[in-house]
Design a protein that fits this description.
By secondary structure, the chain is mainly beta. It has 5 helices and 13 strands.
Length: 268
């Protein structure tokens, strides 16, 4: 969810962010703050609130959007191909989970390890036109956390309502068995300590939602997104997940502003 929202933020900066330079040119830089609120599926964690500083840069080839960096290999009016690097913010700290809820699933929290954040590398493709926007990402864990892979496909159709841009979205994300197992199953070391074994295998998580963008004056922008993800039974049956959980709802909202960095000389 977070990766999707930060991409929306970058789009907002590109479409609506403005510089305060005398020549009126738009700055490729943006800065702001946001919050991601997620109904966590993990046992006893409840609602997760994550403050997010927003920093973006949109160059001719290179771009940086919060936790995503990319280098465009191909960039035409209707198609873009880029090499991607993304921070992965999935996972949990054992101390944030409810020990009694885990015990009800047959898991002793004292035997668990944290699931750490990671870094993914891969390719991103986007097709755009009158029929909407189609995005495809092929990613692999490069940090040695899960050693897994992810494939995500998403379609959106932007709708303008005055100065507001609304984009309904539908899509699905596929996780390899290694990635799903790292975040939703006991590790080999944990099983050796006595945690019951479980393997979700490869999983596909469909989602639907809407993102929005609205400029606020000449420099500021309001961005946000609401998304529901349906969890397959392989994740819902995980010993780490709250019993009866079959989906998660996430919301993102933030404000950003086009700005001119101090290290960029005036007149350039």
């Amino acid at each position: 969810m977070l990766l999707l929202c930060l991409s929306s933020t970058a789009f907002a900066q590109e479409e609506g962010g403005r510089d305060t330079r005398a020549d009126g040119q738009r700055s490729p830089w943006g800065i702001g703050v946001a919050a991601v609120v997620t109904d966590s599926p993990y046992a006893g964690e409840g609602t997760r609130v994550l403050p997010v500083p927003l920093l973006s840069y949109e160059g001719e080839r290179f771009y940086f959007r919060g936790i995503t960096a990319g280098w465009r290999l191909v960039d035409t009016d209707g198609f873009e191909l880029a090499v991607l690097g993304k921070a992965r913010l999935d996972g949990f700290d054992v101390d944030d989970l409810d020990r009694a809820a885990l015990a009800g699933n047959g898991v002793d929290a004292a035997l668990l390890e944290d699931r750490d954040k990671g870094l993914d590398l891969g390719l991103g493709m986007e097709w755009s036109g009158d029929a909407g926007e189609l995005q495809l990402e092929l990613l692999a864990d490069a940090s040695g956390r899960s050693d897994g892979q992810e494939v995500s496909l998403q379609y959106g159709y932007p709708i303008r309502a005055g100065r507001t841009l609304l984009t309904p979205i539908v899509g699905a994300t596929w996780w390899s068995s290694d990635m799903a197992g790292y975040y939703y199953a006991p590790l080999r070391e944990e099983v050796a300590r006595g945690v019951p074994g479980y393997s979700p295998g490869a999983v596909t998580v469909p989602h639907a939602g809407v993102s929005f963008f609205r400029p606020l004056g000449q420099a500021w922008s309001l961005v946000g997104s609401l998304r529901y993800s349906h969890l397959p039974s392989a994740i819902g049956n995980s010993p780490f997940v709250e019993p009866g959980t079959d989906g998660t709802l996430s919301m993102f909202v933030g404000v950003s502003r086009g700005f001119r960095p101090w290290w960029v000389k005036q007149g350039r």
